[in-house]
Amino acid sequence: MPHVTGTTARTESATPAGAAAPAEVAAQSAGVPTLISRIESKFPRGLIIRLIAYLFVGHLFAFFVYLLFVLGAENQ
Fold first, then answer.
1. Model pTM above 0.90
2. Closest to 34 measured CA to CA, from 46, 48, 20
3. CA-to-CA distance for 16 and 22, rounded, in angstroms?
4. Phi-psi region of 9 (alpha: psi -120 to 50; beta: other; left: phi over 0)
């Protein structure tokens, strides 16, 4: 196994090298970009992951604050 520095190793998929999935082949032959490629061309993958994580954490924090107010109102 060669020594790799500063990069992450990628595992090979079940399809042979250079072969694409049937849906990708149909989309490429028609000249239509796939939905994932269109989204990734506009927004980087890291940005999408951070956006989803921040939205989830933000809603979780908002629920926690709401729960504090509800429980505090019941104690009065």
1. no
2. 20
3. 13
4. beta
